[in-house]
Amino acid sequence: MMTVTIRWSALLLSLLLMSGCSTVKGWFSIDDDEDPRRPVELQKFEESVKVKRLWSTGVGNGQGDGLYRIEPVIGGERIFAASSDGEVKALQRSNGRRIWSRDLKTLISGGVGFYGDSLFLGGGDGFVMRLDAATGETRWSSRVSGEVLAPPQGNGRVVVAQTYDGKLHGLDFDTGERLWTYDSNMPVLTIRGTSTPVFRDRLVLAGFANGRVLGFDAGTGAVEWEARVAIPQGRSEIERIVDVDGTMVLAGSELFAASYQGNIVAIEASSGRKLWERPVSSVSGLSQGFGNVYVADEDGTVFAFQRNGQGQRWRQDALGWRGLGRPVTVSSYVAVPDFEGYIHILSQVDGSFVGRVRADSKGVSADMLSEGNVLYVYGDGGKLYAYELSAKPGN
What is the rounded CA–CA span in Å between residue 107 and residue 158? Predict the structure, then answer.
């Protein structure tokens, strides 16, 4: 049966409407006020953190019209970014100055992965490409079974790419030759997107639309273990969607993953043994810091769960139904983007608001990045920003 695609930030009409509206006061009609999924209006607060823009630069058409989440990647003192129309740039992290730029003249739908001297990109027409990180020159391009919606990853021996048809492909790092393919059991309905594979020693860890995370031998593709993040429940296919689509986090020996209409789970990465779980519904992914794991629920609640499994540290529920992206830790703060392109800065200690900036009115779909007290934001419209966060005097 044909898979039906659903935008990650919205299920069906109610949330698709979200992307075309503003939340300024007075916009909504009486009917809108009765909509329980209406995005809340942002409230003013006393900001204790200064958010200073260091630089910005354009990267093609950004996410384009394909509902992509093409994210940049940091490699040492460089940051690499790509756009859906095929532009790829290497920039100096400190000032945004261009090191090199390439126009691949092809549709990019997944990227950017980085390892050693190489970048990895995936295409909407089913290809994986390896580029030289120093020059942008193409090392190889290999065909896979379908659209690549997340950054391919490499470990020097294998490049792994996940395709939207539920398959995971292992390619030879040097040549791009297909080594193995795993085909998961795709459900009838699935959210548009896939998780990003994660390497740990000889294993590669990947989440799938059936609510499972699997550990594979990276060299052979053999399944080493399987863990359930969520079990489909309900009568309708919509109610049974349990995609593991967001960014998973590997911290030491523990892997953290979250699913839509399911759970956040901690998994022993070497064995697949489940350590703890808590109910959550998210497709944007997680981050960790201060002994916490941070996740944004589809309803706009930001949670901090104790990494050791001892329960919830705090919750921030003032961003209801604002289509939140993945929370990212930066310095002693947590930054989370919303569908209107606002970046909300929260305290890692208690989840209180400490700062806010609007990066891109078209939204921020890609994962943000951080290094030290600098936050990198790639807006949907194609601008890459670097923001420095610092406490205001007296705070």
Answer: 23
* CA pseudo-torsion sign 349, 343, 242, 316: positive
- CA-to-CA dists, residue 243 to 131, 261, 294, angstroms: 30, 8, 18
Instruction: Work out the average pLDDT over 46-64.
Output: 98
Closest CA to 163 of 179, 133, 143: 143
Percentage with pLDDT > 90 across the chain: 90
Measured CA to CA, the distance from residue 54 to residue 272 in angstroms comes to 42
φ/ψ region of 57 (left if φ > 0, alpha if ψ in -120 to 50, else beta) reads beta
Q: How confident is the model at residue 32 (pLDDT cuts 50, 70, 90)?
A: low
Tell me the three-class secondary structure of 146-194, residue by residue.
CCECCCCEECCCEEEEEECCCEEEEEECCCCCEEEEEECCCCCEEECCC
Can you give the pTM of this predicted structure?
Answer: 0.92
3-state secondary structure of 12: helix
Q: Phi and psi of 122, rounded to 5°?
A: -125, 150
**Structure tokens, 355:** 């700062």
CA quadruple 196, 387, 330, 372: dihedral, nearest 10: 100
Contact between 324 and 315 (Cβ < 8 Å):
no
Query: Is a pLDDT exceeding 90 seen at residue 14?
Result: no
Distances (CA, A) of 284 to 2, 9, 248, 337, 348: 24, 8, 9, 10, 18
Paired strand residues for 390: 50
CB 281 within 8 A of CB 249: no
Q: Cα–Cα distances in Å, from 334 out to 31, 310, 348?
A: 34, 20, 6
Q: Are 185 and 210 in contact (CB under 8 A)?
A: yes
**Backbone φ, ψ for residue 172 (5° rounding):** -65, 130
